[in-house]
Structure formats: C-alpha cells, structure tokens
C-alpha cells in the first residue's frame, strides 16, 4: 500500500496588513520535500509525525510530497500559494505515475486564507481530489481552530481534528488519520462525513480542553466516537480573525457508510453546543482587573495571557499596554514574553551584554497596538534565537526567534525577539538564562498554548484583552465577508447574572 502525504499549514489572520510569503514558509519549519519529510518529522509531535508512526504501525509505504508551514500571519500571496500547491500536485502526479498511490494524507490547518481564495484548505483538498479522482481516499488532519466548510467536507473522505487545546495530541491525531486511511484502502471502512456549522465565536478561555466547561464538550465528542458506526468526531471552535464567509465553529462527524448517522450525530452535538452557547462566552478582561484577580488569589507567578496580541494567531506581537502598565505600577520580578521588535533586538546586540541602551520599544506595527514605550534598558543577555523545543508541543523540532535579547527595565524584564512566535515552552528563555518560575508576574503573548508548559508553574492564569489587533471583543472585529449573524455579536449574550 502506497500513501502519499503533504500539506500547506497556515492559520491566516485577515485583520493584519502584512502578507505571508514563501520566505515565511522557508523560515518557519521550512519547506520539506520528498523523502526528507519522513526523516525530518519522525518522532515529532505534529500530525505528519503521527502519519509516519501510523505507516510503521499499519505497514504501508508513506510517500513524501511537500510539507510547508509558516507562522500565523496575514493573507498568503496568491503567487506563492500557487507555487507551493503546484509543486505538491506535481510531486503527487509523479509519484502516482511511478506506481499508483492508494490514498493521500493531508496535514492542513483549517483557517488558511489566500489572496483571492477564502477557503485555502478547501481549495487544497479539492485540488488533490481533482487529481486522484473520486475512488481513492483523502484523509485530512485539521487544527481545533479551523473554519470548516462544506467544500472540504465534500472533497475529503475524512477530517480528523485535534482533541486538545493546547494542542498536545497532534501526533495522536495523525496516527488516527493513518489508521482510517489504512482501513479504508483495505475495504474495512467506507468513511461518510457530515458537518454542522455553528454561527458562533467561541471565547478562548472557554476552549481549554483540560478545564470546564470544555471538558464536557470533549466528553461528549468521545462518547459519540464510541457509538457503533461512528469513526471519528471533530469539534472546531473556529478562528474569528479570518473574515471569510463561513467563519465560525462547527462539528464534523465521520460515520462508516452511513450519511444519515453522520448527520444525526453532528446535529445532536451541534444543537447541544448551541443550546449551551452562553457557557462558551467570557467577557473581555482588562489588565488591571486581571492583576487584581491574581493578587486576590495570592499565588505566584501571576500569569497574564495577552491573547489580543497572540502571535500564534497572526498578531504582530508588539502591543505595549501591558508593558506600560507594569512600568507605571513599578512591578518587580516581572517578565514579558515576547516583544517582537527586530530594531531593538539589533540595538541590544550592537551594544552588547552589560550595556545600557535608550530604546523605543514595541508599538511599531500599527496604531492599534499602542504607542512605543521609551525606556532605558540594561542588556542582560543576547541570542541568535536558535533553540530546540522540549515542551509538550512541538517536541523534537527546532525553532528560531531570530536576533533576540533579554532586557531589564527596572523590575520588569522583556525578552525582545525578531520572529513572531508565541512561547510554547520555556526552552528558548532558558538559553538566555531566565528561570520563569522565579518571577512574580509573567506575561505571555499567547492565548492558551503556553499552558502546556507554563501551567505547572503558574500560581494563577488570567487571559486579558489588552489593546491589540486581535481583540476578543468580537463586535470590534469589523467583519464584512461573513454571511450570517453570529453569537455573541448580532446574537447577543445574556449578561444578567441573576
């Protein structure tokens, strides 16, 4: 059995002005081609790593095509997307001509948007379907934050979404997808898929799968998966920062040769989620209020998740409200991860460790990110940015923050980086000599992924909606492309606690 694999992985924010280019794909995990895919991703906690484990377990040959991923960011340039897609399809065609492939495993995200293509993932799956025809299976892995569409459901045989947020189960879902395609090719399964779309934006704080209320959603997902005839169930909480027609949450169910069963199960879970929609909403929380909540709990470090400037969702990473607030309050033993400011990182490298520099820090990408903060800073450590992930997410992979520095501004420390990446684990700051557990206040420009590594050391965690492009005040997103009213914007939440 020969199974081809590849993918273009990107979470696209249409709210930022920048464009994602082929150079961005080359900088991130790289553009990996052909047989190198198996060597590069073997043993890693990404879906392709799970495909490789599945191929070994189920005894099929995995044919690497092209896998490209870029940090979340703005719209992908059409010419660059077309080049990547064309190369993947050309490699698939060549592999098929050499000896027919029996199916295709695609590692995608679910919220990819390209100039002129609002459903990038659907376009990719449909292109593969056009090439291999209707009779060979396509199984796709997708992030929890996909904006799923009817197009991709019709083009694929099965979609397998993550069960965890933070995403610590990516390799597991890849292996699940490999199992499904193996059984399908052997004639043991005939996947049939249905989608239930939900006109709803899901608050990030209510999505953490290890905590209520999301634990009940995942329990129901797994209960459905145990029912006879159900192959897999995907819950997607959506990605509101992509202004596309079908933005929002959804449920996808794959059944074994029973479309009515798939539809019934998708509707059952989807209707229950909608009936309980108030549980998935949390009002935005300001910086001062979050600090007060943390101080009341009295355990340290108090971790503030600056999710409105989450670089993991495509935000610029240079918002300044939290930094300015910490300096005004003269907080001690405080650490901010990370401030994206290549200019200041370069100044620190030029000055050297132990020097003091006058810098205009952050606030350079957009007026929506706040004003730059003028500070006198001590350069404590510098780095080229290279490191190896060792936390639950992306374990086994290397990363780079680009030219970086640890600056100390009185009692407030800031790690200034050149690459837009959220702090998935503590591996990078350890290369600078920073012990996060020794801090009293810790700010991460992340929504939830930081929890996998920072959760065990946190005294308390508060998500904050500081000034930033990716505000969680969904009514302020200014959508123009979506085609339906959504909760909690046009369909308002109930704020009466009585």
Characterise the protein shown here.
The protein has helices at residues 22-27, 36-41, 47-58, 78-98, 120-132, 150-155, 170-185, 214-225, 259-275, 287-297, 321-329, 342-351, 427-431, 451-454; strands at 2-9, 31-33, 61-69, 103-107, 138-142, 158-161, 191-198, 230-236, 249-256, 302-306, 334-340, 356-361, 373-383, 386-388, 398-400, 404-409, 412-417, 441-444, 460-464. The protein is of the alpha/beta class. It folds into two domains: 2-280, no CATH class; 287-471, no CATH class. The strands form four sheets. It has an eight-stranded mixed β-sheet. It has a six-stranded mixed β-sheet with strand order 2-3-1-4-5-6, sandwiched between helices.
The value of Rg in angstroms is: 22 Å
Number of domains: 2
Average pLDDT for all residues: 96
Q: How much beta, percentage-wise?
A: 15-25%
Count of β-strands: 19
The main pleated sheet reads as: 8 strands, mixed
N→C terminal distance: 61 Å
Number of DSSP helical runs: 14
The coarse overall form would be globular
Uncertain stretches: none
Helix content: 25-40%
Write a concise keyword list for the protein shown above:
19 strands; alpha/beta; 498 residues; globular
Question: Can you describe this structure in just a few lines?
Answer:
The chain has 498 residues and is α/β, with parallel strands linked by helices. It has 14 helices and 19 strands. The chain folds into 2 domains: 2-280, no CATH class; 287-471, no CATH class.
């Amino acid at each position: 059995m020969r199974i081809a694999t590849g993918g273009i992985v990107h979470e696209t924010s249409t709210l930022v002005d920048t464009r994602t280019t082929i150079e961005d794909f080359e900088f991130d995990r790289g553009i990996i081609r052909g047989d190198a895919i198996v060597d590069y991703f073997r043993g890693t906690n990404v879906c392709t790593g799970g495909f490789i484990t599945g191929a070994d377990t189920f005894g099929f040959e995995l044919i690497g095509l092209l896998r490209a991923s870029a940090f979340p960011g703005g719209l992908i340039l059409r010419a660059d997307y077309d080049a990547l897609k064309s190369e993947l399809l050309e490699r698939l065609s060549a592999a098929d001509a050499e000896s027919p492939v029996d199916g295709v495993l695609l590692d995608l995200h679910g919220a990819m948007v390209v100039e002129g293509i609002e459903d990038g993932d659907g376009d990719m799956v449909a292109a593969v379907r056009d090439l291999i025809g209707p009779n060979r299976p396509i199984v796709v892995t997708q992030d929890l934050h996909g904006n799923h569409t009817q197009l991709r459901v019709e083009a694929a045989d099965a979609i397998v979404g993550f069960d965890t947020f933070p995403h610590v189960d990516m390799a597991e879902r890849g292996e699940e997808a490999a199992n499904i395609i193996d059984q399908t090719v052997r004639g043991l399964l005939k996947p049939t898929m249905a989608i239930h779309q939900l006109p709803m934006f899901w608050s990030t704080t209510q999505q953490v799968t290890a905590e209520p209320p999301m634990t009940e959603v995942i329990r129901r997902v797994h209960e459905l998966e145990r029912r006879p005839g159900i192959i897999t169930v995907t819950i997607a909480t959506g990605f509101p920062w992509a202004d596309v027609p079908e933005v929002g949450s959804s449920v996808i169910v794959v059944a074994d040769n029973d479309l009515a069963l798939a539809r019934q199960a998708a509707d059952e879970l989807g209707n229950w989620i909608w009936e309980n929609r108030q549980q998935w909403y949390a009002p935005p929380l300001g910086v001062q209020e979050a600090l007060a909540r943390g101080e009341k709990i009295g355990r340290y470090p108090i971790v503030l998740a600056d999710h409105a400037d989450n670089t993991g969702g495509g935000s610029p990473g240079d918002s300044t409200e939290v930094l300015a607030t910490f300096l005004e309050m003269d907080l001690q033993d405080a650490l901010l991860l990370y401030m994206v400011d290549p200019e200041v990182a370069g100044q620190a490298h030029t000055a050297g460790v132990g020097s003091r520099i006058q810098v205009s820090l952050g606030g350079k990408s957009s007026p929506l990110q706040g004003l730059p903060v003028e500070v006198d800073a001590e350069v404590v450590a510098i780095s080229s940015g290279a490191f190896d992930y060792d936390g639950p997410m992306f374990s086994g992979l290397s990363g780079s923050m680009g030219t970086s520095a640890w600056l100390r501004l009185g009692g407030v420390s800031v790690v200034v980086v050149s690459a837009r990446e959220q702090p998935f684990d503590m591996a990078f700051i350890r290369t600078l000599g920073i012990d996060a557990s020794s801090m009293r206040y810790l700010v991460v420009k992340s929504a939830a992924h930081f929890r996998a590594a920072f959760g065990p050391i946190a005294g308390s965690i508060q998500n904050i909606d500081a000034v930033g492009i990716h505000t969680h005040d969904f009514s302020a997103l200014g959508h123009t492309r979506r085609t339906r009213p959504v909760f909690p914007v046009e369909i308002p939440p109930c704020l009466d606690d009585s």
